[in-house]
Amino acid sequence: MKSPGYGKMPVGVMVSSAFLLLVLVCLLFPDLLAASPLKIDTSLGAVPAGSPGHVLGTDSLGRDVLDLTIRGTRSALLGPLAIALGSIVIGLVLGSLAGWFGGVPDWIISRYADITLSMPTLLLAIVAASILGGGYWVSVAVMIILYSPFDIRLVRSAVIAQKNKPYIESALILRLGTPRILAVHIFPNIAHIILVNFFLNIAAGLVSMSSLSYLGLGVAPGDADWGRQLADGKGALFDNPMASVTAGLAIIITAIAVNVVGNYFSERTTIG
């Protein structure tokens, strides 16, 4: 695999990277940016943006919208990151087995992927989360299982495309073991495919987990989360629309920024 030549970074990628860096700081150190501990003040209720002490106003429970958005970053993104990582790991393991060995392992793994892909992902996640209790990490586990078939099929196709190339034939002549061939020779040459799909999974996972939280299946009531904030903000839509708008924009802009950065790195990682 050739070394990526990044050159001059486009403005869109620079802006997206800066925004994701800010999101990362909010995720790791919310107390550095949030003005005060998140607290409910029903006597205050929803006040509009620009009110004294509340730049973006408050929601119907009297919680500061800016602080709520900052603290909701952790819940909104930890799950999608776990979904992306978990589905990629499953995809690498099962996709490699199916693509390299073929035959019965390929048939079994491919049928599992086909069956799972034929199901409506979000609807199945809602049903599974409802049956299993609807906890945050239960929802994450369900989404990993539902997202993994995409990665399985992607890795399987990439491994099949690589295993008939001359450099793999040379490795087989040298009697190198399958794990070494996969880890040292094939995986580096399909890294660009894995990388872009990892970013796509983060963006899709963000939307899916926010949707579950919006429906009351992701996080516990009262917890800071962008999806939950979007749902709670409906009660203050006329008094302070920023209670919902801020969370909606955070979800949309973060998903777009992740895709922009992922595409940039993918385009500059070529197979050698």
Short description:
It contains 11 helices and no strands. With 272 residues, it is mainly α.
What does this structure look like?
By secondary structure, the chain is mainly α. It has a single domain (11-46, 54-267), classed as MetI-like (MetI-like fold, Orthogonal Bundle). Helices cover 69% and strands 0% of the residues. The protein is built from eleven helices and no strands. The protein has helices spanning 11-28, 30-33, 65-101, 103-117, 121-132, 136-163, 166-173, 178-186, 191-214, 226-232, 242-267. The longest helix is centred in the first third of the chain and has 37 residues, at 65-101. The chain is elongated, with a radius of gyration of 22 Å. The protein starts with 10 loop residues before the first helix and ends in a 5-residue tail after the last helix.
List the keywords:
mainly alpha; MetI-like fold; 11 helices; 272 residues
- Low-confidence spans: pLDDT under 50, at least 5 residues? 1-6
The number of domains is 1
Q: Which structural category do the helix and sheet elements fall into?
A: mainly alpha
CATH architecture: Orthogonal Bundle
Rg calc = 22 Å
Q: Roughly how much helix do the residues carry, as a percent range?
A: 55-70%
Gap between N and C termini: 4 Å
What is the mean predicted local confidence, pLDDT?
Answer: 84
Task: Tell me what portion of residues adopts beta-strand conformation.
Answer: under 5%
- Overall strand count: 0
Number of helices: 11
